[in-house]
Amino acid sequence: MPDIDDSQKLKITEMVSRDHQARYNGIRTELPSDDLKTNFFLSMGHALAHDAAIDKELFELKQTLDTRMRKLAMKTSFAHIRKILENILKNPANIKSRRVLMKNFAYKKFIGDVPRVLAFMKTIGFVAMNDDVLEIGPDVNVEFFKGVILKLDAKTTEIDFELSQPPDDAGPRKQCAGRCGFFGNPETDDYCSLCFRSRLAGKDPATNSAECISQGCVNFGNPSKDKLCNKCWHDREERRKSSWVSRTWWLPLQRAKAKLRAIWWFQQGCSPRPIQVDLRKCWACSKKIPLTAVACRCGYIFCSNHRSTLDHDCTFNFRRAHKVRLQQLNPQIQGKKFDRLD
To answer: 211 has which bridge partners?
Structure first.
């Protein structure tokens, strides 16, 4: 390859910078084809500049990952972008594989709602068409997209390594940033789980809350707890409990309640025999039974599975009943011992 002087190097550098900026803005430029050497170095410069721009975007994406949830979101975004690039490499001539619908749910979740991911998509060559489609041109560079996939895999490995590390000891726990009274989580921007979900839904966590009525408290109160925050409510309940226990008549009252409860349970055990109200259901399992079912001698109606006296707790004394029945059916006949002589 012949050498080039400094003026040619400066010219190539200016052309690369100008053409790269034009391509980033979605404008295609026509390169001069008269000088093969210049075109060769220009293409090499484009590749290096493009790789540098991708590395810069990945570095800026990495800087936004300050919480665990953002790292997980970026990991799923990288997996989605990798899937798009793999589909393009499978069939570069198919226009459907080179298009990303911006109205799609997957686009909103993995690209639109994640910071700086859309800028990364534009850096690797996607252009917004009519504000509803991201499209890449038919001149697909297979080796370039393979390199982008390798870069995404490397960043995904870094995120996995950071997620596997144990969290640092951040000292004492902080109150929720939504001032609800619960503790916040540093991974959710110092919000509790409830306030963080409200914040993601576009709602202010403090809109439906009122100030705690306790003097000197800066948290929000809960209407179900007398407009007190959780801490003030628990403190009040503890004070009430301690004041009740400290009274001299409290323990005798509790003993008397225990005695009354024991008497009540004893009366429940001595209560009269229960009555079967619904005669269409089994007394043991509440299974529906026909109207022609025959009641047991204990007075209750059972299904075919519990009809036998061995299958339910029958309270009828069959032995005594049979004894009385035999006495009634077989009366004792006693004749005169002596015949009377008149």
So the answer is: 220
Q: How many CA atoms lie within 13 A of 49 on its CB side?
A: 20
Task: Output the CATH code of domain 276-314.
Answer: 4.10.1110.10
- In the chain, where the domains are located: 42-164, 173-229, 276-314
Phi-psi region of 335 (alpha: psi -120 to 50; beta: other; left: phi over 0): beta
Contact of 184 with 175, CB cutoff 8 Å: yes
Q: pTM, whole model, 2 decimals? A: 0.42
The confidence band for 215, taking pLDDT boundaries of 50, 70 and 90, is low
Rounded distance, CA 41 to CA 245, Å? 89
Q: What is the CA radius of gyration of the chain?
A: 43
22: its two tokens: 């034009």
Res 303: pLDDT: 92
Using CA atoms, how far apart are residues 67 and 162, in angstroms rounded to an integer? Answer: 11
CATH code matching the domain that covers 173-229, chosen among 1.10.10, 1.10.1760, 3.40.1350, 1.20.5: 1.20.5
